[in-house]
Design a protein that fits this description.
Helix 2 crosses helix 4. It contains four helices and three strands. It has one domain: 2-Layer Sandwich (GMP Synthetase, Chain A, domain 3). A three-stranded mixed β-sheet has the order 1-2-3. Strand 1 and strand 2 form a beta hairpin.
Length: about 150
């Protein structure tokens, strides 16, 4: 759609909105905005969200998340990632592949805005108490000591 007029180099509205530079700039801008809006503790929340996203991406690509079987990164403290697996057989597979998974997740987070956490090893558990193995739904019972009745 050329109008025959020379293009103004200062006007970037006609450039493609995609591309590595634009995506990185947008991600950095979102990161800065979240830090400003959320306040103290936002950095840790963003870092944990990036680690969880990287875990999900890596396990999906590795074929370790399909159907009702899956896993999720629950906590990450001092380089130790606690991972809940929905089934014992999946937990065993995660343990067998733990070194490769740690490397892949750390590599996946490299360069992402806010991804400041690094995993050194995994601790893998099966499900959550009271959840019936379903990692997506909350426990069916109230926490101990909850007196909101």
């Amino acid at each position: 759609m050329s109008t025959g007029e020379p293009r103004d180099p200062a006007n970037r509205s006609d450039e493609s909105p995609r591309g590595p530079g634009r995506i990185e700039e947008a991600a950095a801008a979102v990161h800065r905005a979240l830090l400003t809006c959320i306040g103290p503790g936002a950095g840790e929340q963003i870092a944990m969200a990036q680690a969880r996203l990287a875990w999900q991406e890596v396990t999906t690509e590795a074929g370790l998340s399909h159907g009702p079987m899956g896993s999720r990164l629950v906590h990450l403290v001092n380089g130790i990632a606690q991972v809940d697996a929905s089934e014992a057989i999946l937990a065993n597979e995660l343990r067998l592949r733990s070194e490769a998974l740690v490397w892949a997740v750390n590599a996946r987070m490299t360069g992402r805005p806010g991804a400041t956490l690094r995993i050194s090893r995994l601790e893998i558990t099966v499900g959550r108490p009271g959840s019936g193995g379903d990692l997506q739904s909350p426990p069916a019972t109230e926490p101990p000591g909850d007196s909101r009745r």
